[in-house]
Amino acid sequence: MSGKLHQASGPNGGLQPPNCAPSDEPLMTPDQASKLLEEVIYERVVSFIDTELLFAFEQELWFAYDVAGCADEEDVPMIVKALIDRALMRFCDDPRRYIDIGGPADLDDDCELCEQLARESSDATAKQRKTS
User: For residues 123 and 119, what is the distance between their CA atoms, to the nearest angstrom?
Assistant: First the structure.
């Protein structure tokens, strides 16, 4: 067999590989589909993060730590990485990831969750300003 496609009358009347009959079997198991979906969602979320800007900020922190002499030079990258990692973890619980806190409120009067998040965020921002 040459490995070339042979003319066959498939379900769509087109070319079909030899010995390849249509099958009702799923292309992947539910576990494989779940893992694939997880990976697609992760990649999509990562695409919204400006990694170049984040790295530039990390470089600024490295420089600031180095100039200030806060740690040994070889320890600075790991310290800064830990700081960035903690900030990213905090973002997971930050209501600003769901709504635009900086702009004027354009709330849907029927959305109780939107109103609650806006109130909580406003309260947190007011507390933060008082402590600053």
Answer: 6
